[in-house]
Write a structure and sequence with these properties.
The complex is a heterodimer. Chain A is 31% helix and 24% strand. Chain A has 15 helices and 24 strands. Chain A has an eight-stranded mixed sheet. In chain A, 39% of the residues are buried. Chain B folds into three domains: 113 residues, DNA Polymerase III, Chain A, domain 2 (Roll); 119 residues, Roll (DNA Polymerase III, Chain A, domain 2), CATH 3.10.150; 117 residues, DNA Polymerase III, subunit A, domain 2 (DNA Polymerase III, Chain A, domain 2), CATH 3.10.150.10. Chain B contains seven helices and 27 strands. In chain B, a hairpin with a 3-residue loop joins strand 3 and strand 4. In chain B, helix 6 packs antiparallel against helix 7. The N and C termini of chain B lie far apart (66 Å). The chains are: A alpha+beta, B alpha+beta. Chains A and B meet through strand 21, helix 12 and helix 13 of A and strand 27 of B. Strand 21 of chain A pairs antiparallel with strand 27 of chain B.
Chain lengths: 582, 370
Amino acid sequence: MMGRIKILASDVAGKIAAGEVVERPASAVKELVENSMDAGATRILIAIEDGGKQMIRVEDDGCGMSRDDALLSFERHATSKLRTAADLLRVSTRGFRGEALPSIAEVSRLQLWSNDLVEECGTYVRISGGVKEKVEDIALPRGTIVQVDDLFYNFPAREKFLKTAGGETGHITRTVEMAALSSPIVFFALRSGGRKVLQWEAVETPAARIGQVLGKHVELLEFDESNGPFHWHGFIAPPLERSVEKPFQHFFVNGRPVKDRTLGFALRRAYQEYLQRDTNPSAVIYLEVDPGMVDVNVHPAKTEIKFLESNDAFRSLHAATKRRLGKMQTFVAVHLSEPGQGAEDPIAGKAALPPLPARPLHTQEQSHCSAPQAVPSQMQLDAPTSLRDSPFTVLGQYMESFIVVSTRDGILVIDQHNAHERALYEDYCAHTSVPSIQKFLIPLIMDLSDEAFNAIMENAPSLSTHGLHIEAAGPRSIAIREAPAQLGEAGAIAFLAELVHSAETAGDLRAFLDFHLLRSMACHSAIKINMPLTPEKMESIIRNLFATSTPMVCPHGRPIIVKLRLDEILRGLRRNTQGFSS
Amino acid sequence: MEFTVKKSELEHNLQLMQGVVETKITMPILANILIQAEDEQVRLKATDLEVGIETTMPCNLKSPGSTTINVKKLYEFVKSLPDDEIHFARESDTRINITSKNVVFKIAEMPSVEFPRLPDFPVDGNLRLKGLLFCDLLKKISFNLVVDDKKQHRGSLFVMTPDSIMLVATDGHRMTYIKKEQESFDLPVDLPEYRLLLNRKAIQTILRIQPSEEIEMSLGENHIFFRIGSTIVSSRLLELKFPKYDKVIPRGNDKFLKIGVDSFLISLKRACLVTNDRAHPAQITMSGHQVELRSIGAEIGSEHREPLQAEYDGEDLEIRFNAQYLIDFLQVVGCEHIRMELKDADRAVLIRPMGEMSYEYLYVLMPMRI
């Protein structure tokens, strides 16, 4: 009698395994390109036909393979990158599972040419649906070429789920972008149907590669910092940047593009003082870390990782990002006119427009922002010299709400509430004390959605130790029984809303609560708008503001200062710059 | 329109009006007061559409008419004038001339037809309350009203039966309850039971008016009215949502602290000097018969401590309160000693005045966490 359970035929098992690794043409491209990079290639050429469904060809100048290696590489779990199970704990190459080639070969017609220049001639292998059809010697320079035809020809179940050629090409393009970002020193080219899709020369720095790949429309802030076992090299978008581009976040751990919630969350937290809710900061982050600290073997596609100490990683990136943001100065600048469009001037006409200064008018903090800009309003970033030391004069108060200040290179209009709030906030941060906790006589009951309820109750024990005591008061309602006195009822609700919204539990809850507490205290204690101030008070507010780490953004992420630059004033008034240089 | 009024009287009335007008104006006409001159009288009206106030004052009338003027500007101007007669006259279709001696103030008006109509004081069913007594009750709960108008119970629960008048107010951390038996009010025996939410602003407006011997109260369809002297305060009725106040009054607290109001008040104010500006944690330690008050400041090292003259009966206990919450109560309690009934450091304390009182007055306060 036959049992019901049978061992799967090897071709079925192979297809199941292949399905995990090769989900779509882009995953085949990813595996092949990773092999090329692991082989030390400096040039990788990718060609596809019909979105990779008809043909994928990856050509590199890497170390190549000997005949034996070339044949062995099609055996499942054959790899040059791992020897023992212990190696799995310290994977430093991109591939390691030994699954890629056999998996792809299983579901396509594959040809491989390779030469390691050690043996006299190279090797050619042809393999169809996992069956070797031809092996022969060929002449070839050093490197490897893999050509995959008719992907999924014997796997119609998967073929049906593929997108149009355009959609698949998009996936492949993004895959190549990620590979290119992870290795700036490699030349990449992608052609589709004989047409050039992208081509990036080898460059020396990640910054240059980011410029090639993501375009130069954003000026990113760079940081390079080691703390503990982590070495970060990050490029982050300045806050307040009003970009129409979709925000991007790319993380590379030891050169491998990964998706990781912890890292994304650390970034968001670092930005929380700068961005309004619901916005994600754009960033490209490279992490070099002892391979023993991360587990890359979470999923066959290898895009997910696990940190051994996920909280350490969170704190480390959070701190590095915050430090970088703290060094930045941003403010909203007003542009009077759009330079180069002199026709707006009805009297003088184009010709009357004075020539723009050839070099920046002032040796001011931002050299790059003196260039003509066609955008009506733009953020100015990254001042090497801080406002802290710059002399200023308070000119007065406008609308009993805004303090007008003259500095060497322009006029600042400063929101008095936001300015005072920022200074108080930093002061409170420097002198944190244990919050006093007030119990409620009549608990605040809130009815919630399932999702919000679960998110809050999950955090309830830890919140309770920090003074926000929450109990379940029904299947989907909570009762707030104690709250930090300074937070108040409204503050507690706002905090919970944000906690639910971020729906993240990683990271330092205490710091998150403190941030809310201090922000709420600062907001309540700060002077309001529509409030007349004496010159002495204004001067004191400005002095305190300039002494803060981030005088340009209030803790709620709103800008504090609008700047009218001297060169803009001069240009608007059609005056030349003589006698005004500082 | 042309008339003359006394400065001091007008100033006082404008001050009252200003309290009703919203600080954040959504409809421009609501920043104005309506001025109607007829029958040797000037009638002033202001409203934020929830609470309305109207008052009359005698005048020397030359010609009747009406106008609306920005109350803030008018008040500031009148306040700055010397104590004398003030003359109002319409100069043109859009401007009012206000003169006092030879000071001239011309101010733009908005047409009085745009001013919202205030509900009329009902003719029937009016109830006469003893003014001073009623205002005393309001004052004793008014410190505990929720300032945040977004809250559901933005006012005080007001219950009136043939037997008694009761007011309850709470802000979530504490609750004030006061109940006065009917003898002192001489309420009619056939009185229907009133049970409603009294708007915070209405309470505060009534308390600002010079209390008169008698307050006339009336309930309309959507409004409750109070007539105090020549002033009428009307308030739109709010949806009656109020926490179950009787559930939070603690029963069976077994530790008792008797303390003098004046000295406790001074000690608490001293304690507040070292605490920060929003929460004022003050700790009371009762051990044996010794009672000590201590507060710790936000700045490191700042601290205050002093013994309290008090009688304590119960096991040793250490409990922490927001000192400001105690001060609020002690300032209005109006007696020499209070009695605090305690259970433990986590549960509500019940405070009541000691001695012969003509009403039941309770203050329930939640401690802070130690």
